[in-house]
Amino acid sequence: LGNSLSPFINDLPKLRKEYHEARKISEMPIADEKRMGVLKDFVQVLESSKSPGELVCALQSILGAEMPVEAVY
């Protein structure tokens, strides 16, 4: 997991802040089953041997995020 996420380490403080801001305004709780499903999918993608671009696209689809791939690099 650490090796897979290492290219994104520099962005962690910014991503953490964005996550906390998003959770503050979120009024819809996420069911535990949904959380576990997302987590399992997330780990499965990280453990795959995909290129960084494919990895980002797969993670975005799991999280339902729309972020340009260039913003991650």
Secondary structural class: mainly alpha
Shape: globular
Count up the domains: 1
Biggest sheet record: none
Report the mean per-residue pLDDT as an integer: 72
**What order do the helices and strands follow?**
HHHH
Number of distinct beta strands: 0
Q: Rg to the nearest angstrom?
A: 13 Å
Question: Strand share of the residues?
Answer: under 5%
Report the end-to-end length measured between terminal Cα atoms. 18 Å
Low-confidence stretches: 68-73
What percent of the residues sit in helical stretches (DSSP H or I)? 55-70%
**How many helices in DSSP terms?**
4
Word description of this protein:
This protein is mainly alpha-helical and about 70 residues long. The chain has one domain (about 1-70). The protein is about 65% helix and about 0% strand. It contains 4 helices and no strands. The chain has helices at about 1-5, 10-25, 30-45, 50-65. The radius of gyration is 13 Å and the shape is globular. The two termini are about 20 Å apart.
Please supply descriptive tags for the structure shown above.
73 residues; mainly alpha; 4 helices; 63% helix
